[in-house]
Amino acid sequence: MGITMSEATKTALRRPGSLDIERIRQDFPILRQKVHGKPLVYLDNAATSQKPQAVLDALDHFYTADCSNIHRGVHQLSERATNAYENARVKVQRFLNAADAKEIIFVRGTTDALNLVAYTFGRQRVQAGNEILLTAMEHHSNIVPWQLLCEEKGAQLRVAPMNDAGELRMEEFEKLLTPRVKIAAISHVSNALGTVNPVKEMIALCHRHGIPVVVDGAQAAPHMKIDVRDLDADFYAISGHKMFGPTGIGVLYGKAAWLDSMPPYQGGGDMIRSVTFEKTTFNVLPHKFEAGTPHIAGGIGMGAAVDYMEQVGMERIAAHEHRLLEYGTELLSSISGLRLVGTAREKASVLSFVLEGIHPHDVGTILDQEGIAVRTGHHCAQPVMDRFGIPATTRASLALYNTQEELEALAAGIRKVKEVFN
Amino acid sequence: MADLRDLYQELVIDHSKRPRNFHKLEGANLSAQGYNPLCGDRVTLYLRFEDGRVQDIAFEGSGCAISTASTSMMTEALKGKTKNEAEALFETFHSLVTGASRPRAGSPALGKLEVFSNVSDYPVRVKCATLAWHTMRSALEGTGDVVSTE
Q1: What is the predicted pLDDT for the residue at A3?
Q2: Dihedral (CA of A168, A174, A179, A180) sign
Q3: Of A109, A192, A380, B150, which one has the fewest beta carbons inside 10 Å?
Q4: Residue A18 has pLDDT above 90, yes or no
Q5: Least CA distance to A367: which residue of chain B?
Q6: Domain ranges in chain A?
Q7: How many CB pairs under 8 A join A and B?
Q8: Is some CB atom of chain B closer than 8 A to the CB atom of A420?
Q9: Is A359 on the interface with B (CB under 8 A)?
Q10: B67-95 per-position pLDDT tens digit
Q11: What are the CA-CA distances from residue A18 to residues A315, A317, A318 (Å)?
Q12: DSSP, res A227
């Protein structure tokens, strides 16, 4: 079949000043391997991203040179570990453009961050008869904690619908902003569709109605510059492992005024100022929300990941991925029987698709034999699949180290799938 | 490297595209549902079990090629079987697709179902091949629970 790349795309991909992709790929040791005898084509970045050597080195350095507990010891190692961990917090603060490092709470990941907000802020704020507003494209992690809260409080979930392209219907969203709504929880970027929501506009609308907004930013952070103050987000949650950092670490950003007014999430060491059996007083931010020994190495690794992304440059990452997305959309659209699911005008580098008469699970197995790693299934977003009337999709999700050749390998792999089933 | 054609043999593709006994069964007296949350495969199995034998069997649902073909071929294999024979077939089929052990002496012949022998090279697909079989077991035991292969 004839794949024709537009001249503009070709030029753009070769444009001087764009990413030195070969050099970037060398930073990621895992990408050098073969799978089933074929070079690994890793297109499952929305599930988790790979880690650059700088992050691996940061983890290694902590465990080989600085390993110690933090905020406790008077000894040298503890001081070094504490400094490294707190420096990482400042790096994330700058990355998100938060006003203060105390607004950066280290958590296990986005799921943990969203649960934290639901169980503290949500529990304090939501009463019987109230509503929590979500969008139709939320990941299960931004549905279930709110559902549990609703059950506990006798409150209700309301869901803003999307159109056939997978874009939020803003006029419907606005109609749902009633005095009953106490919290809005929205994703910045849909993991299943790639849709980039107009969160700044949505937050402004919510604030006009006095509704605080929790943003699930897990899929946005690896792809675009995030400025929580410009967005005016009340809370913003991200995962380290989706942005080239370790698993088991993430960050909840919260406006200090909210965080100060919230009860603690978990009790334990480090989150207290003083403890007697009669009364405990809680520590200041951010420690109030970080009970127990945290994932110290993870925090440091996440800081190294932020450094790495900033060295490459968020604008250049976004531009590179945008060109790849355009090229990939062109390639896949020209395959007969293939339908892209999620065709929003504003889209991150996600190519979710279905092949006529062929189940995504079979697509995934055949692509794997070609060394191509994709995700197949409902992507922890069953309501999104229901909206499009499909049980599952095959999803190729891109990151800064992916290339146009890899997209061509994907297209060739899909043609192979069709051969097997013909 | 495993050859894809070993997994997706013509018979498998054929049954996945044109599943046999693919309808709701009027007069069924046993039924069970199976669900594979990993890939969203769903199957509802209907059996007319009388005089100690599977008199008729059919299914509805949606799933991947491996799951659909396995269900389709299972329905063909089970007609006329007693509960014990069905159980023995389950065990033999399960051993085949998990690569667990060689068939024991006295195990029933799998016949066409041997086409699934290469599933054992694809461990994540074992659940697809066995979903219908677990569901069949649940139907015969009459527990009525939704079977989940996760």
Answers
A1: 45
A2: negative
A3: B150
A4: no
A5: B4
A6: 7-32+314-420, 55-311
A7: 53
A8: yes
A9: yes
A10: 999 999 999 999 999 999 999 999 999 99
A11: 10, 9, 11
A12: -
Over residues A241-259, the mean pLDDT reads: 98
Instruction: Give mean pLDDT, residues A229-254.
Output: 98
Give me the residues paired with residue A157 across strands. A132
pLDDT higher than 50, residue B102: yes
**Nearest CA of chain B to the CA of A364: how many Å?**
11
pLDDT level of residue A6 (50, 70, 90 thresholds): low
CATH number of A7-32+314-420: 3.90.1150.10
Q: How far apart are CA A313 and CA A300, in angstroms?
A: 20
Mean pLDDT of B92-119: 87
**Confidence class of residue A81 from pLDDT cuts 50, 70 and 90?**
very high
CATH number for the region A55-311 comes to 3.40.640.10
Domains and CATH numbers, chain B: 4-139 (3.90.1010.10)
Q: Which residues in chain A are closer than 8 Å to B125, comparing Cβ atoms?
A: 361, 365
DSSP of A94-163, one letter per residue? Answer: HHHT-S-GGGEEEESSHHHHHHHHIIIIIHHH--TT-EEEEETT--GGGTHHHHHHHHHHT-EEEEE-B-
- The CA angle A221-A224-A230, to the nearest 5 degrees, is 90
> What is the pLDDT confidence band of residue B149, given thresholds at 50, 70 and 90?
low
Please answer whether residues A388 and A341 qualify as being in contact, where contact means their C-beta atoms are separated by less than 8 angstroms: yes
Q: Is A150 a catalytic residue?
A: no
Chain B residue closest to A369 (CA)? B4
A385 with B17: Cβ contact below 8 A: no
Contact A365 B125 (CB under 8 A): yes
**From the candidates A35, A38, A362, which should be mutated to test the interface with B, based on the most B CB atoms within 10 A?**
A362
Q: What is the pLDDT of residues A113-153, one digit of tens each?
A: 999 999 999 999 999 999 999 999 999 999 999 999 999 99
Give me the residues paired with residue B45 across strands. Answer: B32, B59
The whole-angstrom separation of Cα A117 and Cα A255 is 12
SS (H, E, C) A9-42: HHHHHHCCCCCCHHHHHHCCHHHHCEECCEECEE
Whether residues A391 and B5 touch (CB distance < 8 A) is answered with no
Which residues in A242-349 belong to E strands, given as ranges?
250-254, 272-275, 280-282, 338-340
Higher pLDDT, A404 or B144: A404
ipTM surpassing 0.85, yes or no? yes
- Residue A369 to residue B39, Cβ atoms within 8 A: no
Do A177 and A336 form a contact (C-beta atoms < 8 A)?
A: no
CB atoms within 10 A of CB A163: 13
| CB-count burial class (<10 Å; 0-12, 13-18, 19+) for A258 | middle
pLDDT at residue number B72 = 98
> Least CB-CB distance to A362: which of B1, B40, B64?
B64
Could you tell me the end-to-end alpha-carbon distance of chain A, in angstroms, rounded to an integer?
Answer: 16
Q: What is the mean pLDDT of chain B?
A: 90
Check A365 against B122: CB less than 8 A apart.
yes
Contact at CB, B64 and A385, closer than 8 angstroms: no
Under the banding of pLDDT at 50, 70 and 90, the label for residue A55 is very high
